Amino acid sequence: MSTGAGASISKIPELRKRILFTIFILAIYRLGAHVPTPGIDTAALAAFFDRASGTIFGIFNMFSGGALKRFSVFALGIMPYISASIIMQLLTVVVPALEKLSKEGDLGRRKITQYTRYGTIVLCIVQGLFIATGLESMKGPAGEPVVLNPGIYFKFLTIITLTTGTTFIMWLGEQITERGIGNGISLIIYAGIAAGIPSGFSNSLSLMKSGQITAFAALFILAVMIAVIAFIIFMERAQRRIPVQYAKRVIGRKLYGGQSAHLPLKINSAGVIPPIFASSIIIFPATIAQYIDHPFFNALKEVMQSGSMVYMMVYVGLIVFFTYFYTAVTFNPVDVAENLKRHGGFIPGIRPGKSTSDYIDRVLTKITLAGALYIAAVCVLPEIMISKFKVPFYFGGTSLLILIGVALDTVSQIESYLITRHYDGFMKNARLRGRRG
User: Fold this and answer.
1) What is the pLDDT of residue 253?
2) Fewest 10 Å CB contacts: which of 28, 54, 214, 407?
3) What is the DSSP letter of 72?
4) 345: helix, coil or strand?
């Protein structure tokens, strides 16, 4: 953000209050991530997570900002709400009643949001029960139990604590959306992931001081990081613009329409959902194999080891599949074509109706492939850097996509707010005089 934009923010009290409120809520969230859940040996649990860094527990721990490793009251993070939102989106496509409800405007969206909250509570209870049961069977490095007093009381207390923690996080996100700046849920995920950045830089500096990383290698890694970030920013803003022409209409004695516009189709319309799904599915067998001593699972663990060729090929295939799947779920070319036809719009050279929807579908299919390959390249990059170039930290993947995407969205909202306020101020201070006869 430029110096002029920073000066403009300081001159607008309401925007300044919103930004400070957002920072305050995020500070509360990070403080709660360090409040431990009662009845847990945190040292033994941390040692367990050090061994489980390549499993599905590592993914959940990353999104919770390390709260799961510490098993704080925010251990589940916001992931139950994200999962409930995705499930509700999928159900909206296949359940006619929910599809009808989603088209009823603001009232329907609020009803779906309410159902999503109920689903979040249910997922928290189920996940809390499984986590409590799993913790009772875990052992530390010296064989000490992770749970100090296992039993029904511990399970009940854990379920209540984790459910309350996630519900409170959900409320914090809604407060940011309503009274702060940016999307609250996205910023909470952003804060959780960004919390691990300082430790990564610290580890890199210590390795440079010890001589394990040369200065040339550090400069090369830094150049690659800057190039990857610039590439992600370019691709996240990239879009295919389909020209749209609006027909002229006569209403009364006036002529309306005849304007030219465009239909923007994002290259990456699926966002970060495909790598999240793909990571969860591909890591799930490794998680199961770690706790089952069987020849089949041992062979599966060797084949699907992180950084292997089979692992990366399956990972890329899953990302491409889920990119197409989620794009098809969230974007309906038939509805877009009907809306254009209803408002008198058409694509030059394409007949309205089915021909328009088929054309949009063909264009979307082509650019979705480019978006899927872009996501796959960013997600496979860390595996290549770690296995081939011995980079001592994880850079890229879903976490980097989320960080840059949320940052771009938040900055765009601040810029839109500044433009709106400047426009309002211009209209307020202007002296407009009507014509005299």
Assistant:
1) 60
2) 214
3) B
4) strand
In whole angstroms, give the CA distance from residue 353 to residue 339.
Answer: 10
Domain ranges of the chain: 1-195, 198-395
CA angle 420, 425, 426 (to 5 degrees): 100
SS3 259: coil
Residue 169's pLDDT is 93
pTM: 0.78
Interhelix angle 79-94/184-194, nearest 10 degrees: 140
Amino acid at 374: Y
Tokens 């009381």, residue located = 153
The pLDDT tens digits for 97-122 are: 888 888 787 888 889 889 999 999 99
CATH topology of domain 198-395: Preprotein translocase SecY subunit (1.10.3370)
The dotted CATH code for 1-195 is 1.10.3370.10
Angle of helix 184-194 relative to helix 56-63, nearest 10 degrees?
110
The whole-number pLDDT of residue 308 equals: 76
Write out the DSSP string of 275-304.
Answer: HHHHHHHHHHHHHHHHH---HHHHHHHHHT
Low-confidence ranges of the chain (pLDDT < 50): 2, 425-437
Q: Distance (Å, rounded) from C-alpha 111 to C-alpha 102?
A: 9
CA distance 78 to 124: 10
Q: Based on the number of CB atoms within 10 Å of its own CB, is 177 exposed (0-12), middle (13-18) or buried (19 or more)?
A: middle
Q: What is the pLDDT of residue 374?
A: 93
